[in-house]
């Protein structure tokens, strides 16, 4: 019995020595010999848990980046312990501060942790770290917003990436797949306002739209020649409901946004449909020009800027040729980020409502012409950037001036009708058969295509769909 006890004690002693002394030394030596080419294996470990399953002190780990209700991801970096042989060179460096290996720069905290997958403030300056803990430079995307980090890694709040929403009506059609090829090539997102009658037989195209991150919109079932304000409420609701039903059959979800044919719809009708409605700030006139070069020139010569919404059609070959061969490559080359209308709204701190939207220009936002814009709230100081280059909100890299304390402002529409065609939108395109009333907004007042003036129309009423000269053609255009 005594001999057995001694043997057991010897075995336990051996296990203790191997696990408590020898293995840590081997791991330390193994880490020190790494050349920094290994990535840090932290994605499979939740914050607060080490690679061997043991629980870390909660103070050593931040909450992992998660999406909030608006779809934006938290920018806070996750704090990870330097523990486990997979950490490569980090195991051999036990001093706090900045370190650099063959992959890049990383930062070790005094408590032996480092940052991954988000932003962290160090000595008053905000830095961004990738999923492996290395400092990032250039444009970094978080949620729907982009942030710029200088070559030294410091956040630069003065640089803003301009965003534009490119939208296509009346599809899907025979050229839509060609357009989607370019969408995929450039990794951009666009919005498709589709006719329900065109969805059947092109279900795979609609599914691909979603797979590529595009937004599916509702443009009624068959684009009735009669403007919606001249139709009874039940018929209008049915136009959109039938299309949603068809979209659900095709891709499993209904449209998130709508566009009214000819841009004409009443507030009562919008409320009944219950979704945001989108106009545009730039009309390509592609339905009339039917020439790729002319379409391109019309768009590029307009008042194109951050927050613009461009109207095109994916049912016309010249339109798709313009978009794929010239417009999209050029906009990307000029530094524009092409996003969906909902992404553009979220990036501008707008909570979409059952209202009409035609642009997200800063001038329109600050003038109170965009429904659901929260940036003018007097208590929104947490949305601003610090002058020292730190980010003081969870997901905002732009300073919003404070003014009115209301977070829900007028969208500039009248009590009865969003558009009656007199603003140049005989077909919802913002220009009508003779172009627009002024071509496009000059942006001086933040209005777009005449949709906004002082927040109301001349008489606040819908005039039955005719222009001032009575020449409205409700069937000559395709929108």
Could you walk me through the main structural features you see in this protein, from its secondary elements to its overall organization?
The chain has helices at residues 2-32, 176-186, 203-211, 233-251, 267-273, 286-289, 292-300, 317-333, 341-347, 362-366, and strands at 78-81, 97-100, 105-108, 113-116, 118-122, 125-129, 138-142, 145-149, 163-169, 191-194, 215-218, 257-258, 277-278, 282-283, 308-313, 337-339, 356-357. With 479 residues, it is of the alpha/beta class. The protein has 10 helices and 17 strands. The N and C termini lie far apart (95 Å). It is elongated. It has 3 domains: 1-33; 34-149, Ribbon (left handed beta-beta-3-solenoid); 163-373, Glycoside hydrolase/deacetylase (TIM Barrel), CATH 3.20.20. Mean pLDDT is 75; it is low at 23-73, 377-388, 392-417 and 419-476. The strands form 6 sheets. Strands 9, 10, 11, 12, 14, 15 and 16 form a 7-stranded parallel beta sheet that branches. A two-stranded antiparallel ribbon has the order 1-4.
């Amino acid at each position: 019995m005594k001999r057995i006890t001694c043997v057991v004690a010897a075995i336990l002693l051996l296990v203790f020595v191997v696990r408590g002394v020898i293995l840590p030394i081997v791991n330390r030596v193994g880490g020190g010999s790494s050349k920094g080419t290994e990535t840090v294996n932290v994605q499979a470990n939740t914050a607060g848990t080490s690679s061997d399953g043991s629980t870390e002190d909660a103070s050593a780990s931040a909450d992992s980046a998660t999406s909030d209700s608006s779809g934006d991801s938290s920018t806070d970096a996750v704090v990870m312990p330097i523990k486990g042989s997979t950490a490569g060179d980090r195991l051999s460096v036990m001093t706090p501060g900045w370190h650099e290996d063959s992959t890049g720069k990383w930062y070790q905290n005094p408590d032996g942790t480092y940052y991954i997958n988000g932003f962290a403030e160090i000595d008053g300056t905000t830095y961004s770290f990738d999923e492996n803990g290395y400092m990032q430079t250039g444009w970094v995307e978080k949620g729907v917003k982009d942030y710029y980090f200088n070559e030294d890694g410091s956040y630069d709040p003065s640089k803003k990436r301009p965003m534009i929403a490119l939208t296509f009506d009346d599809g899907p059609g025979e050229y839509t797949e060609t357009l989607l090829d370019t969408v995929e090539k450039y990794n951009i997102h666009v919005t498709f306002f589709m006719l329900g009658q065109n969805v059947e037989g092109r279900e795979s195209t609609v599914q691909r739209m979603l797979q590529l991150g595009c937004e599916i919109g509702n443009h009624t079932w068959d684009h009735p020649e009669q403007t919606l304000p001249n139709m009874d409420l039940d018929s209008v609701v049915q136009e959109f409901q039938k299309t949603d039903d068809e979209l659900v059959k095709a891709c499993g979800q209904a449209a998130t946004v709508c566009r009214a044919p000819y841009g004409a719809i009443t507030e009562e009708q919008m409320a009944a449909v219950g979704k945001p409605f989108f106009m545009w700030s730039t009309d390509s006139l592609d339905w009339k020009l039917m020439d790729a070069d002319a379409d391109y020139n019309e768009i590029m010569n307009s008042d194109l800027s951050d927050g613009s919404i461009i109207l095109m059609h994916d049912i016309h070959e010249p339109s798709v040729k313009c978009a794929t061969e010239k417009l999209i490559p050029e906009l990307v080359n000029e530094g524009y980020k092409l996003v969906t209308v909902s992404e553009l709204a979220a990036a501008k701190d707008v909570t979409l409502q059952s209202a009409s939207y035609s642009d997200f220009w800063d001038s329109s936002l600050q003038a109170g012409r965009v429904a659901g814009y929260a940036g003018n709230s007097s208590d929104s100081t947490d949305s601003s950037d610090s002058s020292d280059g730190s980010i003081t909100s969870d997901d905002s890299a732009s300073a919003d001036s404070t003014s009115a304390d209301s977070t829900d402002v007028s969208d500039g529409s009248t009590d009865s009708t969003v558009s009656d065609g007199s603003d140049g939108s005989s077909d919802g395109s913002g220009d009508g058969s003779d172009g627009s009333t002024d071509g496009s907004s000059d942006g001086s007042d933040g209005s777009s295509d005449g949709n906004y003036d002082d927040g109301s129309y001349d008489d606040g009423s819908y005039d039955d769909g005719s222009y001032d000269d009575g020449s409205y053609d409700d069937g000559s255009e395709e929108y």
